[in-house]
Every structure is written in structure tokens, then in C-alpha cells.
Design goal:
The complex is a heterodimer. Chain A is an alpha+beta fold. Chain A has five helices and seven strands. Chain A has one domain: Pleckstrin-homology domain (PH domain)/Phosphotyrosine-binding domain (PTB) (PH-domain like, Roll), CATH 2.30.29. In chain A, α2 runs antiparallel to α3. Chain B has one domain: Rossmann fold. Chain B contains four helices and five strands; from the N terminus they run αβαββαββα. The chains are: A alpha+beta, B alpha/beta. Chains A and B meet through β5, β6 and β7 of A and α2 and α3 of B.
């Protein structure tokens, strides 16, 4: 006899609920991922800009001799003239933004550790752009951003064209482990 | 007679222990300002973003802790005028790259670890503090999260020493 049949209607009901919760989570994550526009990729500020919060998303542009990060609430600017170097790295991390993070946390409750499958589904490769620059007083600063794969090179090229000082680009490191 | 001998032994033991107890609390260092230099890597291969993330997290955490009245960045000329300035040097000794996916799927493997040597020097280059500190991210979070953990631990060491 099937164990659920033996356990009774309540256990079957619980099992159905768990399954539907998991399916809903997966659909939600897919929808969240589908919402990311390809034409206008969002950049995530990891650390380094004083007026911008960590993990704030926004647009990174290079124009009028400055690199500008425009978030939803604040914006910050780094003059190209004060940039000492630009580094590019890469990492495999979780995609889907805050929605996916919340769903992943909720999925911990899914039965038999099946929620962990979300970690596999939500993998995404990102470029890490590190801009080293100095303040007017000489203090060293570093701003770090996560960009969609392949975008960091474009930003670096724009910065170089605008006159930013960079050391010869080292061999790009292979993608970090997810 | 026996009671007198016991009393004598008790007082002798007490007198012997008192000076050692008084010597136990470590003497705290004092400085009004600290300058934090960029992390040195030596021969350890570590991505540039980790160096700068440690540096930025350190500045953030040390400022937040309130241990020093002023926290200067490396290269800041304003620090030159501070007489009792101390300088924080950090050197990466070991870096183990982990995996966010492995951590979250298995919860056992895939930790990112960072071991650094922390040195605080005075103006005359005298070493005031020399300690090893480790930072890691074990379960949730990106690999760069190890830098935040490390900065918190270094900030704690500074708070306990100053």
C-alpha cells in the first residue's frame, strides 16, 4: 500500500499543499527572471560609493568625463580624472534579485530539501567591475559593481576612451565557482 | 598549632596569587586616529575585488565601531597632521575560494575563507598589535560576504585593543 494512502487524507492534503507551494515558488522565480530586460541591463552596486546603499541596483553610464551610477533614490559620480585603475573579475552568483532571495529563503521549508534545487536554477554569471580611485585629499577608494556577463569590458573601454588611467589588463580570471 | 599552619598557608597562597591577578588585564593601547591601508596580498592570488572589498568593509566597520575619533583612508594627507596616528596594515596569508551554489545545496562544503595578518603600527613604525584573523562565509551569501565577516572580526580586535 502507498504510504500516503495508509497515512490518511490529511497527510495527502499536506503533501499536495507542499507540492503546490514548490511549484508556485518555481513559477514566481521564472517570472522574476523573465522581468529582467536585456536591452537595459541593471548594475548592482556592491560597495564603495558613499551615497549609495549596498546591493542597490541602477544604471552605470560614462559621460561628460565622469562615471555615473544612478540608483532609484540617489546617484553618485566619479570623475574619470581621479580613476587609478579598473579591474574586471567574474563570479557565478544568484540571479533574480530580491524576489529570488525571498523565495529561496521560503523554499527552505520545502520537503526533503527540495528547496535547494532553486540554488541550482538561479545560478547566473556576472562580471565584477572594480574601480580604484582617489579623493581630493589623496585617500584611496574602491567602488565595486556587479554587471551582467560581458558588460564590464564595455564599461572599461568607455572609461579608457574617456581618459581613465588603467594598468594593462591582466588575464581575465575564470568564472568564480557558483 | 595545625590551625595556625593552615592560616599561614592560606595567606601565603593569597599573597602569591594577588599580584598575578592584578597583572592579568591587558593594557589597552590608545590613539585618536587610525589610517587604514589597502590590503597587501604578497604571493597569494586573490581577485582585486576582494582586496578592495576588504578595504572598504574595514573602513565602514571601524567607523561604525567608534573606537577611533577619526578613520583615515590610505594615502589621505589629512592624516599627516595627527600626532598619535596609528596605521592598520593587513596582509592576506591564505585565500580559499568557495562556491555559493555548493554552500546552499549541501550546507557543508563550499565555504569561502580568508586568513589575514593584522598589524597596527605607531608613527615610529613600532608594532603595537600583531594578530591573525580569519573571515568566512559558510552558508548563505556571495563569496564577497567573507570580506564583511573579516572586517567585522578585525574591527572587534581593534575595539578590544584600543
Amino acid at each position: 500500500m502507498h504510504p500516503l494512502r495508509k497515512a490518511g487524507p490529511f497527510a495527502r492534503y499536506c503533501s499536495d499543499v507542499k507540492s503546490s507551494v514548490l511549484v508556485t515558488l518555481l513559477l514566481g522565480v521564472s517570472a522574476a527572471l523573465a522581468q529582467q530586460p536585456d536591452q537595459n541591463p541593471a548594475v548592482r552596486h556592491l560597495i564603495g560609493l558613499e551615497s549609495i546603499k549596498r546591493n542597490a541596483t541602477g544604471q552605470l553610464t560614462v559621460q561628460n568625463g565622469a562615471m555615473q551610477f544612478k540608483g532609484a533614490k540617489n546617484e553618485a559620480q566619479i570623475s574619470v580624472a581621479v580613476i587609478d585603475d579598473v579591474f574586471i573579475g567574474s563570479e557565478t552568483t544568484q540571479g533574480g534579485g530580491k524576489t529570488a532571495r525571498v523565495m529561496k529563503t521560503a523554499a527552505i521549508a520545502a520537503p526533503y530539501g527540495s528547496g535547494h534545487v532553486l540554488s541550482l536554477l538561479l545560478r547566473t554569471k556576472v562580471d565584477i567591475l572594480t574601480v580604484s580611485y582617489h579623493e581630493t585629499g589623496g585617500g584611496l577608494r574602491g567602488a565595486i559593481f556587479a554587471l551582467p556577463k560581458g558588460e564590464a569590458d564595455k564599461v572599461r573601454d568607455k572609461l579608457v576612451q574617456a581618459g581613465a588611467h588603467t594598468n594593462p589588463a591582466p588575464e581575465p580570471k575564470q568564472a568564480g565557482k557558483p | 598549632m595545625r590551625r595556625n599552619a593552615a592560616c599561614f598557608l592560606f595567606f601565603f597562597a593569597l599573597c602569591w596569587m594577588l599580584p598575578t591577578r592584578a597583572a592579568e588585564p591587558p593594557k589597552k593601547l590608545s590613539a585618536s586616529a587610525i589610517q587604514i591601508n589597502l590590503v597587501e596580498v604578497g604571493n597569494v592570488e586573490i581577485p582585486a575585488e576582494f582586496r578592495f572589498a576588504i578595504y572598504e568593509c574595514l573602513i565602514e566597520q571601524v567607523r561604525k565601531s567608534g573606537t577611533f575619533q577619526k578613520v583615515f583612508r590610505g594615502g589621505d594627507h589629512a592624516a599627516d597632521a595627527i600626532p598619535d596616528l596609528v596605521t592598520l596594515h593587513t596582509t592576506v596569508e591564505k585565500y580559499t575560494e568557495g562556491s555559493q551554489m555548493k554552500r546552499e545545496v549541501t550546507t557543508v562544503v563550499g565555504a569561502t575563507k580568508l586568513d589575514v595578518g593584522v598589524t597596527v603600527t605607531a608613527r615610529d613604525a613600532k608594532t603595537l598589535l600583531d594578530q591573525k584573523v580569519s573571515g568566512k562565509v559558510r552558508f548563505f551569501g556571495e563569496n564577497l560576504g567573507a570580506t564583511n565577516d573579516l572586517a567585522k572580526r578585525i574591527s572587534k580586535v581593534l575595539r578590544e585593543s584600543f
